[in-house]
Amino acid sequence: MGDEIETGAPAADGREKEDGREGTDGHEGAGGREGRAVPRVLVRRAIPTEPAVRGSESLFVTEATRQGVRPARRMLHVGPEPAGGDVAAALRVEPGERVLARRKMMFADDVPVRVATSHLRLDLFGGTPLEDPGFLRPSLQAAIEALGHRFGHAEEQLTARPPTPWEAEILRLDPGEWVVRILRAAYSVDGTPVHVLETVCAASRHVFPIAQVTGADQF
Fold this sequence. Notes:
two-stranded parallel ribbon
């Protein structure tokens, strides 16, 4: 379930170039952690996400392409797994209860920059197309809406912390580098928790622009 690779733009010679697979499965090649320099890359992750970007096929691909960075995605895992404490709380299930996880890796100019995991309740999405192992067309959000769910509101929480060993390995982080974890819980119009997105970003490879809506803030 972890073999599908998507690139956001063709290589210079017109052929689709696969993203940097070495080191992305947590086994061979850990980039900077084994002495090979990881190229400097900086990508944006706006807070909140612009509506035009939110409605695109891939938020990451759209944002990175706007910046002139060559994006790519790799699906790492699709299947049930136990929900951690804050994910379980956001989904309103018991800690350790199995939920549907869809985990993918994002690359910018072949450098791993973030790992994003969608957590979804199995009582809502078990036995649906959301369990398909590949990337969903046209998007995960469209697949959720096709099942009758309508977006109501979302809440995001950012936490800066040291990486877990797995995160440090798969993101090819140097010793001492931190990550920023974004937990975004999205609710339907009736308040049902529908989608919890957990994104772990390599902190030194991201900038987080924060904007306020006109009339909703002060100087």
